[in-house]
Amino acid sequence: MAQKLEKQERTTLKLQKQLRAYVKQIQEFTAHPFAVAGAASCLAQDQLSIAAWIPTLLLSPADYKPQSSPGALPDLPAYILFLCFRHADHCCDEPRARSLLDAAINAIKRVMKKHSDDFDVVALWLANTCRLLNCLRQYSQDEGNTVRQNEHRLQNVDPQSSCCSLGALAVQLYQQLIRTAEKRLKPMIVAAMLESEPIQGLSSSCPPGHRRSLQPVHGLGSFRAALDRHGLAPSVGHQVLRQLFFLISGTTLNYLLLRKDTCSWSCGIQLRYNISQLEQWLRAEGLQQSGACEVLEPLVQAAQLLQVKKVTEEDAGALCSLCTVLSTQQVSGTWGPVLGGGGLSHMAPLPGAALDVSTVSPQKKLQDQHGGGPSQLLVDTSHLFPVHLPFTTSPLHLDELRIPDALNLAFLVRL
């Protein structure tokens, strides 16, 4: 019993000693605030501890919400981290600069691992990672800066290796953002594109009273709003939307190629109408140049194949002239009844039209048109287009940065 009490006493003394050390450290942080914007000297005693503390405080919680902190910029964490990096540069303290960004990168990865399915959280930290990367690039050069911004240029620490690490992280975050959006969008695509509310007067595979709105448009709208809200560069947002339109197009086309119950003239009309709604949304949002329309083109051509008359050899020639982006197998699959096979071999012709296969020789027409081209049938919807993260300078002057009191970052003060 005496030995047990003695052991407990030693443990208590050890913990009390550690507690006194922590209290002293906190007192030093309070008495010697860490100067940031435009600072020329560093008053804190333990620089490496602060370098590790700042990203942990800012980045580990996923609940940084600029909208709940009046005056907070969406990319404020990136600016604060850069100010700390700049201070380390001013002090010629390269190890502290490196440890700061390493801690920031690790903290962002922890947040992403925990909140991988939250589109808003991923978008927020993608925007902050891009902003931090662009700040390092902007303030390591003179070009494109104002006179005041050039006064805050990096002088002693080469940010090149840090830019490489942040660039790789930004690409990972972008890919995670796409996968998160795809996971939410994919379940609604087929129902919305092929089974939505029918056009009046046309037959539909939907049972009476069964109606669906074009849900992808609403989903795309919410994604676009989140990207704007978190300050992501417009060109990156355009790439996100292009990728999601590719998913819509590929998923719908694959369904057409595999399911005979959608192979009808009325389905082609309905599909083209739904595609036009997506195109109209792009025009309304000013996104005609985003590349999204181009990735819809295979689906547009498939819808046209479902609508055109299929009776004579001339009809076969007309079909071939439509198909500029579909592979030979995809054209054959969509025009299955004439070819006597394929995934859509039971597709119905125009209402009232007799389909005389003996009068048509489309196989040669297709081969002449496509030159025996790609044999791919299904679209690989998991394909990701390469992402381009643009370099954009910030108009903000570092000495004008405001840190809202609501963030409780009292240890960050302006000298």
From TrEMBL:
This is Dilute domain-containing protein. Residues 102-369 form the Dilute domain. It comes from the Eukaryota. Coiled coil: none annotated. GO terms for molecular function: GTPase binding. Signal peptide: none annotated. CDD domains: Myo5_CBD.
